[in-house]
Write a structure and sequence with these properties.
Blueprint (H helix, E strand, L loop, with lengths): L15 H11 L7 H15 L13 H10 L13 H6 L1 H18 L5
Helix pairs in contact: 3-5
Length: 114
């Protein structure tokens, strides 16, 4: 792939042929290497036994949020969101609808907020 050409933001440009080849390879029926095959076998095994993990198919409950909040340790540095554990604990009752919606949105969509 020729990545010497760049756009105005200095991002390498990909030729149409290289892009097409790449996306075709994603959906090809080519054989998997041994590591990939092992991963696929494990995933298929989990998928076939998912009835053993029914709790993963349900939304997070308010009670689970309360239990998790109570387990948070005090006097710990805030993460990039600048919310200290004490703030979460103190705001739990007032913010429960927001926490409930946030955590379940992340769970169902798989997308973490920025």
């Amino acid at each position: 792939m020729d990545d010497t050409r760049r756009d105005k933001d200095d991002i390498p440009l990909i030729s149409e042929d290289d892009g097409l080849t790449y996306f075709r390879s994603l959906y090809s029926k080519s054989s998997l290497n041994p590591i990939e095959q092992s991963i696929m076998n494990d995933l298929n095994l989990f998928e076939n036994h998912k009835e053993q993990f029914p709790s993963l198919d349900y939304l997070i409950t308010e009670n689970e949020i309360v239990i998790a909040a109570k387990r948070l340790q005090n006097d710990k540095a805030a993460f990039s969101d600048r919310m200290k554990n004490e703030m979460i604990k103190a705001s739990l009752q007032e913010m429960m609808p927001a926490y409930f919606k946030l955590f379940n949105s992340v769970l169902t969509s798989g997308i973490m907020p920025k």
